[in-house]
Structure formats: C-alpha cells, structure tokens
Amino acid sequence: MLILRNLLMRFSVVGCxxxxxxxxxxxxxxxxxxxxxxxxxxxxxxxxHTPDRLEQAESLxxxxxxxxxKQAYGDAxxxxxxxxxxxxxxxxxxxxxxxxxxxxxxxQQQGLDVHAAEERLSKARQAARAGELKKLRRIAAEVQAxxxxxxxxxxxxx
Length: 158
Known about the structure:
Elements: H1 2-24, H2 28-43, H3 46-49, H4 51-69, H5 73-109, H6 115-129, H7 133-151
Helix pairs in contact: 2-4, 2-5, 4-5, 5-6, 5-7, 6-7
C-alpha cells in the first residue's frame, strides 16, 4: 500500500509539472492552426455566408495575440483553440451553402424548375445565420436530392 501511495504521488507531481510546462510554452502551433482555419474559411466565402462567425473567430485570435504579448500563454492557447473551432464551423457552413447554391444554379442553367429548391436554399441560409449546422446540412441534402429528381425530368419546365 505504501508503494502504491508513493507511486501515485510521483505521478501526481510529474503531472503537475507537465501541466505547468504546457501552460508556460507559447501556443505557436495553436495560433498557426487558428490563422489557417480562418484563412480557409475566408477562401470558401465565410465572409459572405457567416460574417458574424468569422468576425468572432478573428476577434478570438486577436485576443490570443494580445494574451501572447502579455505572456498569458494559457489564455492565449484557449482563445486560439476557440478561434480555430469557430472558423472551422464557419468554413463548414460556407461549404454547405456554396454547394447547395451551385446545385440550384446548375439546375437553372439547364432550364429546370428550381422554385422548390430555391425555397429550401432560403431556409438553409436562415439556418446558417442561426448557426444551426446540422439543420443546414439536412436542408442542403434536401436541395441536392430535389435537384436530382428535377434533373431526371420529374419537374422540368415546358
């Protein structure tokens, strides 16, 4: 029992030391990951589709930079991670909206009746503004399925 207690104490001490070292190191990788995620979100149109979410990611990254300058590495790391996650969601929302929009535009170019798909796309944009990624993906899948049926000739315009 004494051996087990000594072993647990040593692991506890080692764990605490590792935690302190992790907090004392500048979060350069996390900052880089956040910057890359924000850039990727911009590249797929997040500034148009989810500007509030993209601004939130940029604000979190700016806060992380400020904390980094103050050597508040734990806070900087947390903000950089949050910025990355926020940017990843913005990117996902934008990618779904871009794909759904392209499907509808292709249908229009082919002279198909895209009215129902446009209505669903409008709902997808509302879900995007509300940050409801699951709902957005479901609606976008409905748009694609609807356009698939339309393109097979079920609802062609005369």
